[in-house]
Amino acid sequence: MEMFKSLIIILLSSVLVNNYVLSRFLGICPFLGVSKKLDQATGMGIAVTAVMLMATAVTWPIQYFLLDKMGLGYLQTIVFILVIAALVQMVELLLKKFSPSLHKGLGVYLPLITTNCAVLGVAINNITDGYSFIESMVSSLGVGLGFLLAMVLFSGLRSRIDETNIPRPFKGLAVTLIAASFISLAFMGFAGIVDALFA
Amino acid sequence: MKKNHNLSILLKGIIKENPVFVLILGTCPTLATTNNVAGAFGMGIAALAVLVCSNVLISLLRKIIPDSVRIPCYIVIIAGFVTIVEMIVHAYFPALYDMLGVYLALITVNCIILGRAEMFAGKNSVGKSALDGIGMGLGFTLALVLMSTIREVLGNASFAGIAIPFLEPYKIEFLVKAPGGMLVYGMLIALVYVITSGKAPLKKSFSCAGCPNAATCQTACTASAEPTEEQKGDAQ
Amino acid sequence: MKKSVTSTLVLFAICAVMAILLALTNSITAPIIKQNQEAAANEALLEVMPNGEGFEKMDLSAYELPATVTEVYKEKNGGYVVTLTTTGYGSGFVIMCGVSADGTVTGTVCLASTETLGHEKTFGANFIGKDAAGVDATDTVSGATKTTQAYKNAVKDALNTAIILGGGSVDLRDPAQILNDNLSAALPAGEGKFTKLFIAEVIEGIDAVYTADNGKGYVFVIGEEFIPVDESGNTANTTVKTAYDILVASTVEDIDLTPYADTLKYITSAKKTASGNFIFEVKGPGYGITGGDEYHPASGEYIIVRVSMTPEGKIIDTLTVSQEESKGIGDACADEKFYGQFDGKTESDYKDIDAISGATLTTNGYLKAIERAFEALNTLKGGSN
User: Fold this and answer.
1) C56-165 sits in which CATH class?
2) Which residue, among C187, C177, C173, has the nearest Cα to C225 in the 3D structure?
3) Which of C159, C158, C160, C138 is nearest to C149 (CA)?
4) What CA–CA distance (Å, rounded) separates C217 from B188?
5) Most buried of A60, B110, B186, C59 (most Cβ within 10 A)?
6) What SS3 state is found at B61?
7) Are A131 and C146 within 8 A, CB to CB?
């Protein structure tokens, strides 16, 4: 029960309190780029969540059973990024072969995920935070869902922004960033709520 | 003439093709590490070092690396240099290491570096690639320092850790937090547009097609490019 | 085919070269990093113990310490600096706590944390200069109870660690655990599950009796001694044997309360043993009865107290059967430490007990219940004789 509770806390705080996009700025490039349409935003969010879960499932054992055992901790970054790149490649091939329809839906987002800093970020953060395997998986799920949430929320806002008449210098990315700033401001409010829920 | 050309390679990264404000690359560190000047400067220099080293090595190996595996090769080289820089910072600048945290390792996936590898170092001579790396790195550093100065002075009433007492009662604390970063960045992009009167080069001309982030970038490209074109048309 | 082979080879070669470069850099930087970390750790040591000198890391393998303790540094003048990892609201935080030779906290600092509100960074200042009792009395921060309570427990653990390392001993178990361990040691057949027996007979020299939940025997407590009695009634101690025989021989019969429905309306049940003792279950108006006032149309729940007493009016045993007092206070009044105070008292001195602090109404409810038990005793003694 205690463990279940701590997992819920990890999940909620990585979705709301420590939302990667809105409070840690990880994965902000696709956030600004892809979040224009709702279906794109959802597709990207789901693909990122899936890759995060897979990447964690692979990198966690590699770190603890391979790198740490052999004293090769300094190869972390290089190994993790290669694993993520290979994983993404593999998933894309598999999807293409076995589920072309799903590939059509998600496939276009896969290659961009390799250099999505949120994926590498969550893999490294799970190690530095000293999470157990299950905690790491839950935290990855939370970060992925947080990313999805931010993307979906923002795509709605984006379509409104595109229709309004904005002073010329602010058009495009400038106003997008300013809007993102306000969403981020709203998310800061969650810090107190989650703590109070479980205090 | 040739000298001039080299100089322009160096300078274009600093002003005309500034990676942060004009090309809108490497947004994560730009936002995350600019809440204080010291951290931002450190981040800029670390990225500069990685950029120069990887540009030089990739340029050296450009005839050896087969086209089909070039992206994985670039990633390995960049991740390697990032780790080296990370270890050096950890050993000799522990305070900076603590300040930058995971963002140091995340230089690996900074699009500026992979983008320059793909667009420039993979096609040009060693010397030019080094100059390009220095130029882009300096442009990145300058942008980070500019942004962090605004955020730290106004948000924390200090500069590089030195307190500015008379600003203390007026500090806008949220500027050093996450939302403040996005707000200041958005304002600066608009400001750069005004200063260059909309003549900043399109992101398309920089082309990030080779970057694995390409599709994302392209959407971003169109997102930021479309209004620019339109604005240009209006301006003329 | 050839092309893909060369591609793979080149990729591998690049990987190998980078790995070698990394290994080289690592061999140069790793010792410096380690040195830096040690220096930083020493700095933290001085922060929590400003007057400390000559810190030395201790080997803890020979000691049994609280589970939170990860590292201890011994200081030259007899102090200790303890590093503890504790779980608060998030995945936990690490604090370092200095304990001086006289057992007070010299300082604490949070080394690493994933908590969200940041109280762990400032809360430590509350403990400086306090001893164990002072730490116990420190209030947690409402709204961040988990974090601050964890911090408090960790500081307590640090103080205990200093005592253990200083050669003293500290029982890290809570009182219930200690009791259960003692009972299990006396009667292993009880498999660690015991219930306190409610006693209605006068048994000289016995403080308490516990029965094994699986029926495998009893444990009699005399002072600090735990004396087992097996299921067939065998025991080595004569006092215990006598007491056991009395308890086994004891029989009770219910007393019909209908004739007394008017006078003894607060007695819910009454029994009489063959030896003439009475057992009453009495309602007492505590805070659970709105404001302790039962003269207006009473709403809420009474405190139900079970009391056994001799015909001469001496209380043998008491027990809280049920109570609906407000949280915290209710726990205190259901604790044997409180109601056990009535044992052995008579009608003239039962009011000389320590009240529950801050809970006058609850304490009064108990006193009222005992008073009613004496009333019932006087009535029934007269009636039955």
Assistant:
1) alpha beta
2) C187
3) C138
4) 82
5) B110
6) coil
7) no
DSSP state of C268: E
What the block records as the tokens of C286 is 């505590």
C275: which 2 tokens?
């030896």
Distances (CA, A) of A147 to A24, A28, B110, B222, C287: 11, 9, 19, 22, 51
Q: What is the DSSP string of C65-97?
A: --TTEEEEEE-TTS-EEEEEEE--SSS-EEEEE
B190 touches chain A (CB under 8 A): yes
- Residue the block writes with tokens 């603590």: B98
Read off the pLDDT of each residue in C202-218 and give the average, rounded to a whole number. 82
Side chain identity, residue B74: Y
Q: Which residues in chain B touch residue C25, judged by CB atoms under 8 angstroms apart?
A: 83-84, 87-88
B66, B76, B87 ranked by CB distance to C18: nearest: B76
Residue B80 to residue C369: CA distance in whole angstroms: 79
The length of chain C in residues reads 385
Which residues in chain B touch residue A188, judged by CB atoms under 8 angstroms apart?
Answer: 177-179
Does this model's pTM top 0.80? no
**DSSP assignment, residue A65?**
I
Is there a contact between B223 and A176 (Cβ–Cβ < 8 Å)? yes
Q: In this predicted model, what pLDDT tens digit does every residue of A10-52 receive, in sequence order?
A: 888 888 888 888 888 888 777 776 667 787 788 888 888 988 9
Tell me the C-alpha to C-alpha distance, in Å, between residue B166 and each of A92, A174, B170, B172, C102. Answer: 57, 31, 8, 14, 46
Residue range of the domain that includes B137 = 2-200
Asked if B114 reaches chain A (Cβ–Cβ under 8 Å), the answer is yes
**Structure tokens belonging to residue C292:** 């302790």
